[in-house]
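Cross-posting from the modeling subforum.

Setting up a comparison between two proteins and wanted a second pair of eyes on the formatting. Protein 1 (sequence, then structure tokens):
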Amino acid sequence: MDSYDILLVILSVALLVSILVWISVGILLVKVLKKVKTASDTAQQAAENVEAFTSQLKTVGRATAVGSIIKQVTKAFKGAKK
């Protein structure tokens, strides 16, 4: 065997190993990206739930404020009748 043949074998093996490593890296990257997408969807859903909850709290707060005003008005009228 000539030195060029040995060099060709070494480079071919190195190329094969490199290709296998990059394929495995690509597969792992796809798996990680899928998990990130799932986590992102879950976070978005949680944010939407928090937004809906705060909207409900605003509605409850307004109802409480209206109830407080009505209570004060009725208390004022009851006090005026005495």
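Protein 2 (same layout):
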Amino acid sequence: MKRNYISPEYKYTNVDGTFNMTEQRAIFGSKMMEIDDEILLDNRDIVYYHNVINEQLDLTQERLLSPVIYSITQDKKSSHSISIDNSQSDFEKQKNTKWVLEINTRDILVNYIFSKIKESRAFENVKNSSTSSNSIDIAIRKYIEFNLLSRYKYTEITLYVKYNSLRGSGFYRYENKWNQNIAQVANKHSKLQVDLNFDKSKMTVRFTQEKVATDYNFDYYFDIKYVKI
């Protein structure tokens, strides 16, 4: 038998399936993570455990370490800004001031789903070395981006506003504060204009202060709802 001494151009090496975070779709059904039918980004905390290099291998040992606490409220606070609407007149600004909320909704949603996955330990026993980025946390975020984000759509934002009188209070005009404690039906602000950017990663919310700005500032808070599609 004649031998062929041509060496192969490629070397085939077995790698862990977790190197690829994109779920492959098939005609007759695909493997996919079970997810919540509805997501409400309210004021809850999500608690989970992992080891010092963020792997989840042994819950008993990991409970000896400090838990990781993800605060939805704190994430919403750091992922938005509020400013006076520059399109209004000086008269409007002095009276019923118009405000603009800019919210990085995609960041909040990804952080929430990430924390829920860590809480459920869906990637338990997957080591950093079994991922393409050598980081299980980065791999989970890629999984969310490639497979889960498209399965949710925004449905509603609930804005809460509670007015504070400036008379003898020590409060200042336009000094509005983030306050999760006002999330009550009585404080719901119903007249909103909501716009999402082209990839739905950011939300712009416009609303008008209902009490005169020379006499009142306000505390505010918001919840955001998504549903599975």
